[in-house]
Design brief:
By secondary structure, this protein is mainly alpha-helical. Helices cover about 50% and strands about 0% of the residues. Helix 3 runs antiparallel to helix 5 and helix 9 runs antiparallel to helix 14. About 30% of the residues are buried.
Length: about 350
């Protein structure tokens, strides 16, 4: 199984350290054209990839030659991991390419394996796929070490730092997704610990937990049910969150950082109980802030906030839809920080 597009990020035309900043305007247009709609079929996914890769003719032509006209609903990943958040248009561009392509490869492999019933065929094709993914992951880790990018990327990190770490994480998910598909035929599956320690030669302290996605986490279209569906400008969201933390104690920052909340708000695959978001303000202020955010999200509902099992009140109680509804009844007085919150949210307009 060839992974040409992902390989090009480390070895060829998509290497982030060769990116020309003059191309940022064109990238902005591509991202706008792709939009925020999640692909539900392989055809839709490939259309989005073709838009993003329009300036890379070899990759675009190669993608066209693949069997990419599937109309059945996409199969979602078996596992999730905490990915670093992109911080600008170019990092969002790479994030989209990597996430779309790993999902395409996973679904293409699944379709291919449906043709085989003999164990020998399943083992043969799975072994080749895992070998290719592992080799690229090892080379990605090599680049990370050579460039001194071992730390988790932050907002101040370079594009290359962000992209290489993101690619390593997505490749790890892809490796274990494909292994999971064929687990019944594999005698000695690789554990996440052995993958890090023995294959990637990384210390145990760097192992990131793989979070299994159960059928309950996925809807009938193969997408995660639980996400808030952010649909606006990330930089504006980031600025508003930071100012809310600074001016109205939106979060208890001893427990939860602004970056952790941002990752949850833009995540496409929120896993219940995966992180603790403790607010530092009164629940009335929190509910008012949620109302102000709603126009910028598709799915920021009270029910989804409760379903996430992530949000805790100032007094450290799990926030429920009933809590939030009660804090917004008709007879309730306005939140104390209303004027400040309104002023901060003008930046989202």
């Amino acid at each position: 199984m060839e992974i040409k597009i992902l390989n090009s990020i480390v070895f060829k035309e998509l290497m982030p350290w060769t990116f020309d900043a003059k191309g940022t305007k064109a990238i902005n247009e591509k991202i706008k054209k792709v939009g925020s709609k999640e692909p539900t079929t392989e055809t839709e996914l490939v259309q989005q990839l073709q838009i993003l890769l329009a300036d890379y003719s070899d990759l675009s032509k190669w993608l066209t030659k693949q069997n990419t006209k599937g109309t059945s609903t996409l199969k979602n990943h078996c596992y999730a991991i905490d990915f670093p958040a992109y911080s600008d248009a170019v990092s969002k561009f790479y994030n989209a390419i990597i996430s779309l392509e790993t999902l395409r490869v996973y679904n293409a492999f699944n379709t291919k394996m449906e043709k085989y019933s003999k164990r020998v065929d399943i083992v043969y094709h799975t072994t080749i796929a895992l070998k290719n993914i592992k080799a690229l992951t090892i080379n990605t880790v090599k680049e990370i070490k050579e460039k001194g990018f071992e730390e988790i990327p932050t907002e101040q990190s370079s594009l290359s730092h962000f992209v290489l770490q993101l690619l390593r994480q997505h490749l790890t998910i892809l490796f274990f997704d494909i292994q999971e598909l064929s687990k019944a035929s594999i005698d000695s599956p690789t554990s996440i610990e052995d993958f890090y320690l023995l294959d990637l030669n990384l210390p145990k302290a760097q192992i990131q937990e793989l979070k299994p996605l159960t059928p309950a986490d996925i809807d009938f279209k193969g997408q995660e049910v639980l996400n808030f569906g952010f649909k606006d400008d990330f930089e504006k969201l980031k600025s508003v969150i930071n100012q809310l933390c600074h001016q109205v104690e939106f979060l208890n920052e001893d427990v939860t950082s602004a970056d952790e909340l941002l990752k949850v708000l833009i995540s496409k695959s929120i896993l219940p109980n995966s992180v603790k978001i403790q607010i530092g303000c009164e629940t009335k202020n929190f509910r008012y802030i949620v109302n102000k955010f709603k126009p910028y999200f598709h799915n920021l509902t009270l029910a989804n906030i409760e379903k996430s099992q992530l949000f805790y009140s100032k007094s450290d109680n799990l926030i429920t839809a009933n809590n939030l509804s009660a804090s917004n009844n008709k007879n309730a007085v306005e939140p104390k920080e209303k004027a400040t919150i309104d002023k901060i949210f003008k930046q989202m307009q």
